[in-house]
Design brief:
Number of strands: 0
CATH topology: Growth Hormone, Chain: A
Radius of gyration: 21 Å
Distance between the termini: 17 Å
């Protein structure tokens, strides 16, 4: 059975509404994250080293892992449309508070708490949209639909970051850096309110959960259902291996992102000129965004030719090579080559594995399994950042780290995804 092509999916009367809500939120994520990165990592009065950058990543991702056990409980018990609507609304209000704190130049505990809350609630939104997507399309279209949802979102995060950076450049002559960042976050707050309104175009139960037994969520139930998610994956070993391979790729990508951040901040540009460093990082991320698009477009064709399992295995092996550009030379062009090709292979792996996992799950377990998926991947991202912090100097120049990233991808392909263990099971 032939699935819909990308244009057909974009015109799909139900999917297009989910795409609009997801993409508006992720474009706003980019605007918000650009202001936050500018305030925390590219402020003239704050020096950035590997440990500071890694701690920033860990702080951002900590709530993802802390609330992970409870996401499945919520998404499998209440209307996902309502959960996403109220989460976007609350996140918009939270950003109003962040805007005020940054306008005042606050960097203490109060700012940390509200930022943690903003990123934590974002996890519920994205998990809910991912869990609901298979209910809006048929199995033959699932790879393409997932590629569009995830990749469109990734591109819009990059574009949103560009919008935030552009606003900052416009405001630069007229206001201080803190006041510019506060205004950008105010714009992001409006974006989340708009995303919240777009969710209302979906019907209350259109993205689930289906009519299975509903119970009142409890504190302990979250951990019980996480265990159920892990138990489900034990019986679907190929999905579990795909999740861990995706986690390895995302952790490796984070380590390389830290390299890019430090090279642009402290080596390619003067540490006394953080604006130039921010511009350089924006260019690298834009190139990565092009790679993300190419990887997503490539995935459906690769899957139809090789099958999901062989394609995922091929992508992890190809992921061995991009970091070698950076190992050979820590200059802008090799960095951009690494960003592009690493994004192509990584995104193609990610969207293919998302569809593989979704195809294995009935709706009763969907929220639980995606909660496990999120916790595993985000744990790997934090781990990648912290390992990179232990290896990288403040300059970002390192031959060892890219070689380690390549070796980890190679070992993952040879052991975790070996053909005898990672293959099609009906």
């Amino acid at each position: 059975m032939q699935g819909l092509n990308f244009l057909g999916l974009l015109r799909h009367p139900r999917l297009s509404r989910l795409f609009a809500a997801r993409w508006m939120g992720q474009a706003t994520d980019g605007i918000f994250q650009s202001a936050l990165a500018s305030f925390i990592l590219f402020s003239p009065e704050r020096q950035t080293n590997a440990l500071n950058a890694a701690l920033a990543f860990a702080t951002v991702l900590l709530p993802y892992s802390l609330i992970g056990p409870f996401i499945g409980t919520i998404l499998d018990r209440v209307s996902r449309q309502r959960a996403i609507f109220f989460s976007n609304l609350i996140r918009g209000i939270d950003l109003l508070i962040i805007s005020v704190l940054i306008f005042q130049g606050k960097t203490g505990l109060e700012l940390t708490i509200v930022v943690l809350f903003a990123f934590g609630i974002n996890r519920l939104i994205l998990a809910g949209l991912s869990a609901g997507l298979p209910l809006l399309t048929d199995q033959p279209s699932l790879i393409s639909a997932n590629a569009m949802a995830v990749t469109g979102g990734s591109i819009l995060v990059v574009l949103g970051g560009g919008v935030g950076f552009g606003i900052r450049k416009i405001l630069e002559p007229f206001s201080s850096a803190n006041h510019s960042d506060a205004f950008i976050i105010l714009v992001a707050s409006c974006g989340y309110f708009l995303a919240s309104s777009l969710v209302l175009r979906l019907k209350k139960n259109e993205i689930g959960p289906l009519d299975h037994e509903k119970k009142s969520p409890s504190f302990s139930q979250g951990f019980v259902e996480m265990r159920e998610g892990f138990s489900f994956l034990k019986n679907h070993a190929d999905a579990a291996r795909g999740i861990f391979a995706t986690a390895v790729q995302r952790g490796s990508l984070t380590a390389l992102l830290l390299v890019a951040l430090l090279l642009e901040r402290n080596t390619f540009n003067s540490p006394d000129n953080p604006e130039a460093g921010l511009s350089g990082l924006a260019l690298a991320l834009s190139i990565a965004g092009v790679g993300i698009t190419c990887g997503a477009l490539l995935a459906p064709f690769g899957v139809s030719r090789f099958g999901r399992h062989r394609w995922i295995r091929l992508m992890i092996f190809l992921n061995v090579f991009p970091p070698l550009f950076l190992a050979l030379s820590q200059q802008p062009f090799p960095l951009y080559m690494t960003a592009f090709f690493g994004s192509v292979f990584g995104q193609s792996l990610k969207v293919t594995n998302d569809a593989l996992v979704q195809s294995k799950i009935n709706d009763y377990f969907r929220g639980r399994v995606f909660a496990v998926y999120d916790v595993v991947v985000n744990g790997a991202i934090v781990g990648g950042a912290l390992i990179a912090a232990l290896i990288l100097p403040a300059s970002g120049k390192s031959v060892l780290l890219p070689l380690i990233v390549s070796a980890v991808s190679l070992i993952t392909g040879l052991r975790l995804l070996r053909k005898s263990k990672f293959s099609f099971v009906s």
